[in-house]
Amino acid sequence: MKHLALIPLFLLCMACQHPSTPSDLHLLVGTYTDGGESQGIYSGLFNEQSGQATLRSSLMVENPSFVRFLPGSSAFCTLSEFHDARAAAHLGSYAPEDGRLRLVSSCLAAPEGPGAEDPCNAWSDGSHIVTANYSGGSLSVFAIGDDSTLSLRQFISYPALRDSTVSHIHCALPTPDSRYLLVTDLGNDCIYRYTIHPDAAPDGEADFLTDHCIAYTGPTGWGPRHFVFSNDGSFMYLINELGGTIVVFRYNDGVLEPIQNEMAEEVPAHGSADIHLSPDGRFLYASHRLQHDGISIWQVDSLSGRISKVGYQPTGRHPRNFILTPSGNYLLVACRDDDRIEVYRRHTDTGLLSPTDHDIKLPRPVCLQWLGE
Question: Which of 9, 36, 102, 238 is the most exposed place for a label (fewest CB within 10 A)?
């Protein structure tokens, strides 16, 4: 678990043969390693001129289903998604010059025994890492020490809010003003809010997250999953996994005001997954799985924040996660069950997508992240 894996044959060339160019974006890919040939985390380069990718290196971490670079750094955090006490968070380093990956530190996600099963999402401010633990119905807050050692500093578990529910925490992300952390609970159909204390020293006793409250309660069975804010921070867009809906909120100083609900799935498959805005904020994209897998495409009114559907792009099977390039010219989709990352050309005037012939073949990809994102 703590060694640099040999690069499999299908990576074709070693990292040292692929130095980056000014047109290249640095890419990390998280995968599922259970029952397959995955080597864990992969690094690569994506060229924004050609739309083609080159894989460079890999690092064996078990089930790294989410990867995120630390802000302003080539260090990254990841996790091991296990349905037992092996669930953990990890800190790693990435070398941009040759793509090599190294595991620096690891820490179990629960203080003792069960409670943090299936961590599936992570966020970091550079001094702390927060993981959303889906089946455990909990948050784990890790401090990053001066020596880059991870330690579990805060553990928050959520009870069922109704007799028929079980907490399932899916993501935890900050508001645009960096004052609050919003936490989606798919099982309890709500979003929690915490106050972030950035001055809570990693080696101190003060809690990083305080002042817990419920910021939003949605219809029963919708299952809030992921969200994204508009570039100016005035609006938030939430994808509900089970309801297949997008909710548009007006945001102001920690307050979420719902202003629009739209059905996003083409069929009621109860498998909506990810949501992102184009870099210019004019178009919104959401991924959908289990039936009629694909990406729904929405135009955004910049003044009202409201959305209108303009298209739907079918994809490979199980598009759990996707990203857009900073230029907005390409959209990459991790199609887990087809063992590939599909690359689409994005038409910036219409928001629509066109397939390219530049798919990246990798076993069970589920998370894509750019350096500097």
Answer: 9
Residue range 135-165, pLDDT digits in tens = 999 999 999 999 999 999 999 999 999 888 8
Let me know: does 25 contact 54? Beta carbons within 8 Å.
no
Residue 69 CB burial class (10 angstroms; 0-12, 13-18, ≥19):
buried
Buried b (16+ CB within 10 A) or exposed e, 249-273: bbbeebebeeebbbebbeeeebbbb
- What are the distances in angstroms from CA 10 to CA 65, 120, 247, 317, 361? 21, 27, 41, 21, 8
Q: 331-339: which pairs have CB atoms within 8 A and are 24 or more residues apart? A: 331/285, 331/295, 332/46, 332/360, 332/368, 333/287, 333/295, 334/29, 334/365, 334/366, 334/367, 334/368, 335/293, 335/365, 336/32, 336/364, 336/365, 336/366, 337/364, 339/363, 339/364, 339/365
- For residue 222, the 8-state DSSP code is -
With tokens 């508009």, the residue in question is 230
Cα 10 vs. chain centroid, distance in angstroms? 26
- How far apart, in whole angstroms, are the C-alpha atoms of residue 279 and residue 120? 25
pLDDT over 90, % of the chain: 87
β-sheet bridge partners, residue 75: 93
**How many helices and strands, by DSSP H and E, does the chain display?**
0, 29
Query: What gap in Å lies between CA 295 and CA 333, rounded to an integer?
Result: 9
Token pair for residue 226?
A: 């992921």
